[in-house]
Model the fold of this input.
Amino acid sequence: MRVAMIGAGYVGLVSGACFAEFGVDVCVVDTEVSKVEALRAGRIPIYEPGLDRLVEENARDGRLSFTTNLDEAINGADAVFLAVGTPSRRGDGHADLSYVFAAAEQVARAAKGPLVLVTKSTVPVGTGRKIKEILRKTRPDLEIEVASNPEFLREGNAIGDFMRPDRVVIGAESDRAFQVLRRLYRPLYLIETPIVQTGLETAELIKYAANAFLAVKITFINQMADLCEKAGADVHDVARGMGLDGRIGRKFLHAGPGYGGSCFPKDTLALARTAQELGAPVTIVEQTIAANDARKEAMAERVIAALGGSAAGKTVAVLGLTFKPETDDMRDAPSLVVVPRLVEAGATIRTYDPQPSHARQMMPAGVQFAETALDAVESADAVVLLTEWNEFRALSPQKLKSAMRGDVVLDLRNAWDPAAFREAGFTYQSIGRQ
Ligand code: UDX
Done:
């Protein structure tokens, strides 16, 4: 089979490389010349564990290629995937679909025969139908089916999620479209992956419903954590006690500084807007968005309070800047709220992140970047653990204590052992625990 993937961003690259690994011929197309040149030379523009090897091997074996030429990419393709960006539109939070619609029109103009056009990008319910309209207007002579095949890839674990998904969702309106997509995912039948076949609108909504539900779940446990602090309870045990109920499940009940990333903030906002417009507001999601925004601000205030009410003249070491471990992605990371607020309050900030490439461009002027966690904490008054990279878990409290000037620890991911830190002489605070 042959597939064209439009967009060499996170989703397009991972999906393209994984389809190639399934044995499909994949051509990834992007308008950015420098990106395509880099990929051809084997350089991957994002950090995702295992992706470099997958791209290299499949490119070497001739199943994966990169181009800026859309006509060439879609020539002979059984399916063309749209994996272009759908950022939040400035001002109203709606998903910006201009890239999706432009790409769909381009595909329609360039198509030489029937094909299936599949949205992989997260698009609001109703987008597939609008794409159909564009295709019909641009090429009334040609049969181009539209399908929706949303991705559920977690950054840092994207290849595993693609190769061993909980489910594959296919939304379409013709047997041919279902058949093409089922053939592409055939390797997953061996591991008995459930395939959910639905209409276009339903598939589009499944993606938003899943992401919004997870965002609500995280926000719920974050608010429980605040309550635990007031009530003298332990959020870790509350989460365990709740999560062992099979109906609730233990995942996504880790209290922290608020969710970030490329999906939850943007998708919750887009879902809330669409629902309002359709006259069926999802108020629980609206409240989740507000609570999560407020939480990131509250984390900065918590650090200032732990410093005795003023950060002026204090040195704060911040460990972890990315929105979660195993990625270099900074989109909507709590650090983007917490660090600027501390700088504004007069603190000197020294940070360390194992993947600081994007963070370097996004932190306020004057923020220092250390080469190791221990360098970051040198003579600091306080240390804030903001992203739970594995290498931070093993840090010795004694070593931290002897490197630091002060004794304040804010473990905003509950990654460290409170008893060990208190024993080392720290004033240790975490989330939702005494
Ligand atoms: C998410 C979805 O999981 C994925 O299915 C979707 O396609 C894209 O969005 P991702 O953004 O990579 O994936 O990250 P994820 O691991 O889901 O975490 C999102 C955010 O929630 C992070 O900021 C993380 O720190 C936070 N989180 C997650 C918590 O605070 N607590 C949890 O229990 C889980």
In short: The longest strand covers residues 2-6. Residues 151-155, 211, 214, 218, 252-254, 256, 259-264, 323-324 surround uridine-5'-diphosphate-xylopyranose (CB under 6 Å). Residues 2-198 form a domain with the Rossmann fold fold (CATH 3.40.50.720). The CA atoms of residues 92 and 152 lie 25 Å apart.
